Amino acid sequence: MKKWGFLGLAAALTLAACGGSTDTASDGGPGTSGGASRLQTVLSRGQLICGVDGGIPGFSFVDESGAYSGLDVEVCRAVAAALFDDPNAVEFRRLDSTERFTALSGGEVDMLSRNTTWTISRDTSVGMEFAPTTFYDGQGMMVRVDSGITDLEDFAGRAVCVETGTTTELNLTDQMRRLGVEFEPVVFQDADAAYAAYDEGRCEGITSDKSQLIARRSTLPNPDEHTLLEVTMSKEPLGPLTVNNDSAWFDVVKWVTFGLIQAEEFGITSENVEEFLGSDDPNIARFLGEEGTLGTDMGLPNDFMYRVVTHVGNYGEIYERNLGSESEFNLERGLNDLWTNGGLLYAPPFR
Amino acid sequence: MVSHSDDTQKLSLKRVLRDERFWKIAFQVITALVVLLLIAFFIGNLNANLTRRGTAFGFNFMRNPAGFSIGESAIRYLPNDPYWKALLVGFSNTFTLVVAGIALTTVVGVAAGVASFSQNWLLYKLSRVYVGLVRNVPLLLQLFFWYFAVYSNLPRPENQISFVGIVYLNNRGVYIPWPATAQLALFGVGVVIVGAIAAFFLWQWHLKIRVATATGGKPQLYGLIGLGVLVAAIVVFGLNWRIPEEVEGGGVVGGLRLSREYVASLSALVFYTSAFVAEIVRAGIQSVSKGQWEAARSLGLPAPSVMRLVVFPQAMRVIIPPLNSEYMNLTKNSSLAFAVAFPEIYSIANTTFNQTGRPVEVFLVLMATYLVMCLIITLVMNQLNRAVQFKER
User: CB distance A185–B69 less than 8 Å?
Assistant: First the structure.
């Protein structure tokens, strides 16, 4: 039985090899096979390859000059700073929502920082490894102000635009099933096409993470004509991720992310980090790599967090720059504040 | 003595190396080895990667509930149906798109191809401009054009367009009359097919009698007319048609709604493929020698009959093989409809592998589906090709 399965597979793979059209089988390459950690690959390459969305202002956005900005982008820069002491040693790859996991598991990118929701099935059956959440979000629904729609029940017989390959697609179905509302999903591969279709009236509503809706609203022709409904359909913890079964590399991404949070808790910023050097507090001395071997144990230079904070800053700085008071969105910290301030951000001890 | 046998051995080796038959077999063996090694490499690579990720190859996930909704479906589907059902829905949508696409492409393509021989200046130019324009623009671009430029300019449901009160158009889609149930629709199609076959044989009978006796054949002609009236009556009155009706404040109830996604995809596919078919038809007609045209005209046949009875049947020999590959192109290109949100099988497969993290398995299913569809088209077209070839007796 097994033999026949393999024969079928063999035939199909030959087809794939000739057609060269699947993005999984043809992208194996010598770089991804073998037992060595991705960490070695990245270090010897001298550059980090990071998968981002690139179309969401505030998270990852490419401006006219081709420069990337946003919270997701800065997480990539933080990892690059920890590895190479250079936040610009990153190559960004724009990935759409269906490409992202295959790109990561195929080895095309080293990590994803692409507003990806942490779910159990992605962690287990899809084969991903989620680093700490960098943005706690919830799913919302955007409608036109003049449509008269006030809650989800109003969508009976109406159409909702949604991006494929996202958790929002599933949550929307769950919510509507729970409410018993028959609606029409119009599922787009490309977020830009989905928002264009919403804008010209194909759908009465468009659903996505609230932060994304707010960011996208700013790019619509008349932002004031659109409003977000007062519903939160789901929990959407967004964060960076790496591929399964590579602990060494996963640890680096995980602890750099935790480091950003811990730096804010210590009150270390890109401006005052020099003052903390030579600190009497052993916690801070360990954190900045002046004591102990926290960095070298992980395969990084011992002062990796000093590098990160110098180049990128702490989590609070990143947030304010891209989403908070220094940005056009002016989002409250809310859940994305330190645990000491009533938020959910909490880093385990650096010891 | 020893040196002599050595010589013969060397000679025989040389002889083998110079033998054409040896090399023929050797190349076969080498090719087979290379192919096998390639396959082994790919399987080994896949296995290594799957093991590294901690997943095993298998199709059991197909039985898990899909959990996503699908906008339109030819078969009944609920979000808690399994993945295989969702893929089946995708296939049914692809199927309706491909079948309608092939039928319309044949009509539009042949019309455009024949028009390029028209004596009518406007018709001729129109055909040339259409082919030139459409053949040279990428299909994906045309899809977006139809979806975002053509059909988005249709009015909102509040002030929709209506054609004599039975067909409605708005930016949601097109609403057409449709038989009350799927069984009735199939019954209608069956009646038309049976009627057409019967009519064909009646007409052959009529012609045979006409050729043999130069008169008569009247009963067959009446039979033909009667058959036509009967089929028309069944189709018009027997299918319990549901006519779309406008509701107060915009919108439509009843009838069949062809979503804007479907209509846009169909339009793009049909007009794109038809341009290629038009060129194939033109080439086919041009391949018929000038003498055939002249001979037909000298028999006193009017221009439409020259085309219909003499030139076109001969052109078919040249048209059918490349037409086969255009039909296959249309089938495969239908996967691009996912870009304008039509839930065909590629789109559903995309969501499925993204949700389950099983791209290899899902893509195998996808490849097999397109392969089978294309093989069926080829099978049918080969039969057709055999029928129109010269009969050498």
Answer: yes
